[in-house]
Amino acid sequence: MTVPFFYHPDFSGYDFGATHPFRGERFASFMTELEDRFPEVYSTLDIKKPKAASEQTLELAHDHAYVHRVKALEKRRGFLSLDTQLLPGSVDAARLITGASVDAAREALGRGIAVGFGGLHHAGPDYGEGFCIFNDVAVAARTLLDEGLERVLILDTDAHQGNGTMDIFYGERRVLFISLHQDPRTLYPGRGYVDEIGSGDGLGYTVNIPMPTLSTGPLYTRAMREIVMPLWDEFEPEIVIRNGGSDPLYTDVLTNLGLDLESLSELIGLIRAKAAESQVPLLDLFLSGYGPYVTEGWLAIVRGILGAEMDLEIPENRIMISDAKMEQMTVELERKLEKIENNLSPYWEVF
Ligand SMILES: [Zn+2]
Strand pairing of 206-211 and 113-116? Predict the structure, then answer.
């Protein structure tokens, strides 16, 4: 069985300049590395070329005025936010990445699984920031809802909270948005507290799980088993869209979490296994990650999705966490999980 994988060489246009932590060469470097080091794994991928999202498609998740503002800004190399300058070609590349996630979502529905480069989750209805121009995850989810789906689970495991995706679906109950992210007190975008649980019709359908800084694999597994899995079972999604790249790794230069390659693969594998067990199509998207081990982290994600044997390595010692610190992190997480369950109990039977 082959797994559909969406890639286009023109993703390289998604680039924010020579001194920026997000460069467009990351996509091609990853493809080359995967093919050279793991030819057998590479041969199990059915590589597909996506089409760019049309303006109409972008407007499923973004305001008409925003889409036009982005175009005008690009012409004068303007800034969406301090960290997100629009260089020539970046908007077309953003449209291509968004189109890829839409194509991949449809493919996942048909084939049970699809993989691609995506997760521009900091772009909201009328704003872009945090290296995100258009929110491919939200556009893909909206496309499927438009085409008749009624329950989409978006599971965001990026180190940064998915504020854009959250804002787009905050009042909506057809999308259950769950985000596991580094404690917003210590990391951009500073959103995603346990009390942010949706509004109006969408109350209870936004779930934020702030992970303590330095969180390791066992803490993630715990949050998955106590919060994510029960909600997944009760919600009965028709598709799961997981997004998030390698930035929860302990080596990431912009974040402060504590996953290693094994635990990142395990986290992804846990989601893959759950999707298989509940016979739900899975779309897996990754694109984030900063510093020298982005490719290695992405390979760990692919290993988790495919359950493949792949020897991966980070030649950099991990931070030693003392027993006392581990205990403190566990207690902190337990308190958060309890609070989340209390907040959600009016809306969900499992809590
Ligand atoms: Zn991130």
Answer: unpaired
319 Cα: distance to centroid of ligand 1 (angstroms): 20
Annotated catalytic residue within 8, 122, 160, 181: 122
Specify whether 122 is catalytic: yes
- Count: domains in the chain: 1
Q: Is residue 87 part of a domain?
A: yes
Report the separation in Å between the CA atom of 346 and the middle of ligand 1, taken as the mean of its atom positions: 31
pTM (two decimals):
0.98
* Average pLDDT across the chain, whole number: 97
What digits encode the pLDDT tens for the residues 115-172? 999 999 999 999 999 999 999 999 999 999 999 999 999 999 999 999 999 999 999 9
CATH number at 225 reads 3.40.800.20
Question: What is the DSSP secondary structure assignment for residue 284, as one 8-state letter?
Answer: E
- Structural contact between residues 7 and 99, judged by C-beta atoms closer than 8 angstroms: no
Residue pair 100/117 in contact (Cβ under 8 Å)? The answer is yes
For 293-344, how does the pLDDT look when each residue is reduced to its tens digit (9 = 90+)?
999 999 999 999 999 999 999 988 888 899 999 999 999 999 999 999 999 9
Omega within 30 of 0 (cis) for the link into 189: yes
